[in-house]
Design brief:
By secondary structure, this protein is mainly alpha-helical. Helices cover 64% and strands 11% of the residues. The longest helix is centred in the last third of the chain and has 58 residues.
Length: 191
């Protein structure tokens, strides 16, 4: 009896709740999350310099922290911004594009891009949350690709430096060998 007497009140509460929820859902802007996961892996260098031999051997934590900083760097953000022309995208169009404001643009970029390590692994997640799902996916993938390019460029530069150092060492050793050979020949002639 009590329910039937108050059915209009219960019906009104259910109606207002459903109607209110629908209004909130329709007024809320949808935000999409796209993520890319990368493996931050250290490869052993082919050429070992003396500093690498005498330096600390366990650099695992330092290496991972360094890679996190590289992933969160301004340089990497600027590469992605330039590659995807993000200054022309509606979500970023309200920002000025002068040289002074590049820092603000990078801050806005990292406002939608979050870099976070996956606990107890060598994995890092690059997550992007935006209104445009396709753009969020493009940014996440481009950030991962630019990171890979950047690290390859760095390793290539180190390899070139090592090659140059080896060339210099080879020239020095050849010069020493020639001097030693000449000194040996002089000694043989004189004795």
């Amino acid at each position: 009896r009590m329910l039937s007497a108050r059915r209009w009140l219960l019906g009104s509460i259910v109606f207002v709740t459903v109607f209110g929820t629908d209004i909130v859902n329709f007024r809320t802007t949808a935000r999409y999350r796209a993520a890319a996961t990368i493996l931050t892996n250290r490869e052993n260098p082919k050429v070992i310099r003396q500093e690498q031999v005498t330096g600390p051997q366990d650099q695992g934590i330092e290496f991972l922290q360094t890679q996190q900083k590289v992933l969160q760097s301004r340089t990497l953000a600027e590469r992605v911004i330039k590659r995807l022309s993000l200054e022309k995208q509606p979500e970023f169009s309200g920002l000025p594009t002068s040289k002074k404001s590049k820092i603000d643009f990078v801050k806005a970029y990292y406002g939608v891009v979050k870099i976070s390590p996956v606990r107890m692994t060598l994995l890092t997640e690059i997550a992007v949350v935006m209104k445009d799902a396709a753009l969020a996916a493009q940014i996440a993938n481009a950030h991962a690709e630019e990171y890979v390019r950047f690290t390859l460029e760095q390793r290539s530069g180190m390899s070139q430096e090592a090659m140059e150092w080896l060339r210099q060492q080879t020239v020095e050793l050849q010069t020493k060998l020639q001097k030693s050979d000449s000194a040996l020949q002089e000694y043989r002639v004189s004795n």
